User: What shape does this take?
Amino acid sequence: MTASLKKSGPADTPPPGPEPEAIKAIPVRHYGRWVAAVVVLALLGLLVNAFATAKINYHAIPDFMFDSNVLTGLGKTVLISVLAMALGLVLGVVLAVMRLSKNPVTSAVSWVYIWFFRGTPVYVQLLLWFNLALIFPYINLGPIYRDEMSDFMTPFMAALLGLGLNEAAYMSEIVRSGIQSVDEGQTEAAHALGMSQGRTLRRIVLPQAMRVIVPPTGNEFINMLKTSSLAAAACQYLELLRSTSDIGQSTGATVEMLFLAATWYLILTSIFSIGQFYLERHYARGSLRSLPLTPWQKIKANLTSFSNRQSGGVRA
Amino acid sequence: MNAMVKAEGVHKSYGAVQVLKGIDLEVAPREVFCLIGPSGSGKSTFLRCINHLEKVNAGRLYVDGELVGYRQKGDRLYELKDSEVARNRRDIGMVFQRFNLFPHMTALANVMEAPIQVKGETKAVARERAMKLLDRVGLADKAGNYPSQLSGGQQQRVAIARALAMEPKLMLFDEPTSALDPELVGDVLDVMRGLAEDGMTMIVVTHEMGFAREVGDSVVFMDQGVVVESGNPRDVLTNPQHDRTKAFLSKVL
Ligand SMILES: Nc1ncnc2c1ncn2[C@@H]1O[C@H](COP(=O)(O)OP(=O)(O)OP(=O)(O)O)[C@@H](O)[C@H]1O
Ligand SMILES: [Mg+2]
Assistant: This one.
């Protein structure tokens, strides 16, 4: 960065004189910081010691890390999270557009939907979907589809509908705030060019709204990964937590398997956080003068600035 | 010859506030028509009525002989569908005080967007015209820049190129230079002067009296929603007849 600044400097800047002598002063001593650090480290040591001496069979964790049942559960967790999130996203955009439309009926319907699905626990919703056969024995969508409800409402379907429809209510509020964050002048400019409502939304408004939409959506997705564990208890969907705790019960390594599940959840959320970083970077195009560096670029920049130390400072 | 824009008793109000109180005027093809007046006099509102971004409450507006926003059958008016309004807007370019470039697209993509999306042009055709237009406004070398990487004057010139890409028969300018630093105003006015020389019909809301005098074919002074005075720029600007015009000009000149 420093190098490119030098190159692009205007031609009439005076040539750099001799480097000014760096200030050598005795820094302020922060005794409080030292004390705080020691206390925190001591507490941390106690905690580690407690876990190290606890009756935990740590070997069980790597032993079962790639157990086929665990991996199946893991796959199901990812599958249901991705699909429910996709359902929530699509339906959320529809609900947000309905909510913002001038039509009072669509706007009210969207409002009621959000009111209901945000206002009741997702666990209750999952239970309701799973037990739908009790009140509707048959599903009848006219000529398209008809079947016994108990055949249709598999654990997978119940989990998908329960998680996805709930998510749509949250997503629609996120999408709505994103759409509303886009300057009205944008819509006006698009309309003045002869673009239709739909095209203006798709080409102009939504891409800009994404900057506001993506960060909370990342949160939602990480929440979804974890909330999907409710689907096991509510509708017998055999996801990660269920498969690990089943192993825990049959082997007696209950806590170890909970640790294993926690490890997998941490790995999943870490992977998706990285994905989110790149997605946010993608939608920051144009709104920032220069994009934030990727971790890889940061490493490279640090390395080059390290070797260029003597030719100018490192800018914090 | 038919007027390019014709306003007959145009009224516009927001709730109880009357903003336009009966505007009558005519803009001939190839004319550069300057609108001046104090803040809040309704200049922007009138401009936005011309491409139906605002609905007029009474009176008639015609662009190139066609009623704006409505279809007349007998003595009944039918509102046009959104798609028909959009179609009519294709022929009217608009340039805003705050540029309103699409920030998520490069300068080139900004100029290509409407021809591709609205007219269904191929990318190659749109790109070729966009590059020509960017060259015309002196920004061919900035085609790949995002709006945030351009100065205000450059952004406004891209915005003009974007409007021209639809090959409009009428251009509306709403104070195109008032958000710009003084030293950037000249570049934008030069582009507009070039457009005028090429025979574009332009309605320009402006506080640049120099531009109005040199380039304008006629000037209209508006105040509180009515046309106070209109005519040849030299007459109106140097020898105003009405006290309100005199008071306004003494402040801005
Ligand atoms: N959407 C709106 N709702 C209510 N009042 C409005 C609206 N838009 C404009 N007005 C009012 O209409 C009047 C005229 O506004 P307009 O923007 O047309 O003025 P202008 O002549 O363009 O002024 P300026 O030179 O400051 O741009 C103002 O008093 C303004 O407050
Ligand atoms: Mg205005």
Remarks:
- The radius of gyration of chain B is 18 Å.
- Residues 146 and 230 of chain B are 41 Å apart (CA to CA).
- Chain B has a mean pLDDT of 94.
- Chain B has one domain: 5-250.
